[in-house]
Amino acid sequence: MGKSLQIMTVIPGRLHGFRLARAVKCIRIGHAASSIVMVCLKGAQGWLSAFRAVLRRRDRGHRRAGAVMLLLAAVLAPDSVGAACAPSALTVAVDIGHGPASPGATSARGRSEHAFNQELAARVRDHLVSRGVAARLVLTEAGGAPDLWDRPRLARAMGANLLLSIHHDSVQPQYLERGDLEGRPARFSRHAQGHSLFVSSKNPASDASLAAARAIGRALADWGLAPSLHHAEPIPGENRPLLDKALGIHDFADLIVLKTAAMPAVLVEAGVIVHPEEETRLRDPFHQDMLAEAIARGVLEACPVLTGQP
């Protein structure tokens, strides 16, 4: 990369695919024909964000620089949680959506949703642990995927303040098309992209669930990530009530893992894996770390409501 260093202001809009709701101060570190890496200070909150755009090639040098920027953002950005709410008071059960026997959706390039869920759930767990949160994956004693009904029970046995279920998304069958993708037959859709958040109005701690989902949604928005609203479409299989349109939060009242949890519970659909370009992003370790960082920050922001601390 080049050695340029420039302080600049980016106005509201889009920066290399990231949506900015307000003007931000940025330091551009390095520039090349194929890549720009920036660290951005977002308003009075003092949040740092790392932005990287790769227009054509994705060589190791640019990828490494992007990872460094994300690390700086994670280390230097102060958490918005108050000092009175200690991260050590939080126990988070991180559920890996689906399992080998029922792997969920299939991506545009034929990869199982469960494989995506495993990668992101582990990163979310690691980001939480690095901040002092007691975060554990929800697994059987043998280290496998539990039965759907057992997941809330295992979370309760952990003493979890929050059950966080990690998933990746698809669309309804009528939106899927068959075609050629990178020289291979594929089934994909560009109907929807972006993350979605779900809570259950039948969860005994539904208010706290919604508060946690809003905190996670705000953290994702602070990274410039826009939600998808396709689950609110008035069509069979969707039509989920929107609880917060701006943050992409839906009510999935009868979803077992949310409804039967004894503690606040949030399900994160991290992105739409049948969308070819979004699938590429969701497989990128840089993007996975950005998602995990945002989710972890949202959980920490919700610490007071999850623990009952001021």
Automatic annotation (TrEMBL):
SMART domains cross-referenced by the UniProt entry: Ami_3
GO biological process, one term: peptidoglycan catabolic process
Residues annotated as domain MurNAc-LAA: 152-300
Keyword set includes Hydrolase: yes
Gene Ontology terms for molecular function: N-acetylmuramoyl-L-alanine amidase activity
CDD domains with a match to the protein in the record: MurNAc-LAA
Keyword set, alphabetical order: Hydrolase
Class of enzymatic activity (EC top level): hydrolase
Listed EC numbers: 3.5.1.28
InterPro entries membership: MurNAc-LAA_cat, N-acetylmuramoyl_amidase_3
GO cellular component, one term: outer membrane-bounded periplasmic space
Catalytic reaction annotation: Hydrolyzes the link between N-acetylmuramoyl residues and L-amino acid residues in certain cell-wall glycopeptides
Keyword Hydrolase: yes
PANTHER family in alphabetical order: N-ACETYLMURAMOYL-L-ALANINE AMIDASE, N-ACETYLMURAMOYL-L-ALANINE AMIDASE AMIC
Record-given protein name: N-acetylmuramoyl-L-alanine amidase
